[in-house]
Design a protein that fits this description.
The structure holds two protein chains of two kinds. In chain A, about 55% of the residues lie in helices and about 0% in strands. By secondary structure, chain A is mainly alpha-helical. Chain B has two domains: about 180 residues, Four Helix Bundle (Hemerythrin (Met), subunit A); about 70 residues, no CATH class. Chain B is mainly α. A three-stranded mixed β-sheet of chain B has the order 2-1-3. The chains are: A mainly alpha, B mainly alpha. At the A-B interface, α2, α3 and α4 of A face α1, α3 and α8 of B.
Chain lengths: ~150, ~325
């Protein structure tokens, strides 16, 4: 495996600001513990979320649960409402998505996490999105063109 | 998870240009390179915490893809069967299936899981402030809510089994459906397309009402006997008037999807409960609170919240389909 030349290693360890990327930067885990650029405050960078925030998010989840059920009854014709028609599923999913975001961002601390963790968390969404979009793209458009066999 | 072990690991020789012993951090002593829960391949707790979170998120992404595939199957079959039902003049099978779910129990289950998310977030918080009593309490409360959820699920599944709604096991829901006012279209023809009646020229509604009368007359004549579907409507419920005709094969597909998704979700809950019990035992021994060691609780919290999120999506998609 290629190793940096001694000059480059020296630059990385002593002048990390001149080097692109993460190597040598304070808090990157690539500085030895005795270097002046080593950054360990003795804590572990936990972002403390207060209980008040958790309670607020819980309240939000309760409100949206009631909203979910209310939307369902509206759709069935409560108060003489004609129903959402095609928009039933998108509305239900939007409400569920809002609840999921609240849990992911606050309860799972993604809002307070590093960009790396945030990117990995959103990767799941992106790939599931590709699964849905590209496959439904086929099935949803099957009846659009009158071809024999469809 | 060896970072829950409190025993100190032997000091490793690290290649440093300068004298390592001259730089101690935070009074750890004995040449340790950090607190007892810091594994040796990490430079500091922050890096370890980040790696822990990242590793858990990679796993959760794979879980998202797994459940995502099942959600896709749901989407596809709901789309296909809704289109078919619209063309045939039947009610959407997924809407009928959803109407056969227990609305109250589904709502209570969702409430229970949302509360358990709060309790597990609280457990992470109290682990952060090193409060052992509250940590054990919150984990126990989360476990209790999880057990309540599984218990309610078991009640729902038992009922589905009793009325003959379990595909592959005892699918025979005709009399139960008749009690609710639904009539199965007889599947004949190409690709199992449902075919109206016996060739008589009548509308779907006429066919349905007529067939419902036939079924109820049959039941009355034979004393309501018919295998596992023999319970029909609940004894305390009047038979409902005719609601709709529905394609039986597509309704069966709804229940296949229902049992697969809630089944996989229940397996995840059981695994979560297993993990919680281990964590409660470790918490009682002070592993997470004798020193600042809340990272495992946080990682477990990520798993539990994920299982909750799956249910947040499952609930409206399975229980709250209006039409």
């Amino acid at each position: 495996m290629a190793q940096p030349s001694p000059e480059r290693l020296k630059t990385q360890l002593e002048h990390p600001e001149k080097v692109a990327g993460n190597v040598g930067h304070a808090g990157s885990g690539t500085q030895p513990e005795n270097s002046p650029h080593f950054e360990d405050h003795g804590d572990d960078h936990t972002h403390h979320v207060s209980m008040m925030t958790y309670y607020k998010v819980f309240g939000f989840l309760m409100v949206f649960l009631l909203l979910t059920v209310f939307a369902f009854f509206l759709d069935k014709g409560l108060f003489g409402f004609p129903g959402f028609g095609f928009w039933s599923a998108p509305i239900a999913l939007a409400i569920a998505f809002a609840k999921a975001m609240a849990v992911v961002l606050i309860f799972m601390h993604v809002k307070f996490s590093s960009k790396l963790v945030q990117i990995f968390a959103s990767t799941g969404l992106i790939f599931v999105g590709i699964l849905f979009l590209l496959t439904m793209n086929d099935y949803w458009t099957r009846a659009w063109i009158p071809v024999a066999g469809q | 998870m060896s970072n829950i072990a409190v025993s100190s690991a032997p000091h490793e020789a690290v290649a440093h240009a300068h004298d390592h012993a001259a730089h101690e951090h935070g009074g750890h002593g004995h040449g340790h390179h950090g607190p007892a829960n810091l594994l040796h391949h990490f430079t500091d707790l922050a890096q370890q915490r980040e790696s822990n979170a990242l590793g858990m998120w990679v796993f959760l992404v794979t879980e998202v893809m797994t459940f995502g595939a099942l959600f896709f199957i749901y989407t596809l079959y709901r789309h296909l069967s809704d289109s078919a039902a619209f063309q045939a003049g039947y009610k959407a099978p997924f809407a009928v299936g959803s109407a056969l779910m227990n609305f109250e129990l589904g709502f209570i289950n969702t409430l229970v899981l949302l509360c358990s998310s709060l309790t597990v977030a609280t457990a992470v918080y109290v682990a952060g402030v090193r409060n052992k009593k509250w940590l054990v309490g919150m984990l126990a409360l989360t476990a209790f809510l999880g057990v309540v959820f599984l218990g309610i699920k078991a009640v729902e599944w038992k009922h589905d089994y009793d009325v003959g709604l379990v595909p592959g096991l005892n699918w025979n829901p005709e009399s139960y459906l008749a009690g609710k006012g639904y009539v199965l279209a007889q599947p004949t023809g190409v690709n199992g397309q449902a075919y109206i009646g016996d060739g008589r020229p009548e509308t779907v509604k006429e066919y349905g009402a007529r067939r419902l009368e036939e079924i109820r007359a049959n039941e009355a004549a034979h004393g309501g006997h018919g295998g596992h579907g023999g319970h029909g409507a609940h004894s305390d419920e009047k038979p409902k008037p005719f609601q709709a005709v529905v394609n039986g094969m597509q309704l069966q597909m709804f229940f296949v999807i229902y049992f697969c998704m809630t089944g996989l979700h229940a397996i995840h809950m059981i695994i979560g409960l297993g993990l919680i019990s281990v964590f409660i035992w470790h918490a009682k021994n002070g592993i997470f609170t004798d020193i600042q060691n809340d990272q495992p609780i946080e990682i477990f919290g990520l798993y539990w919240h994920f299982v909750d999120i799956v249910w947040i999506f499952l609930y409206p998609l399975l229980y709250l389909i209006a039409h």
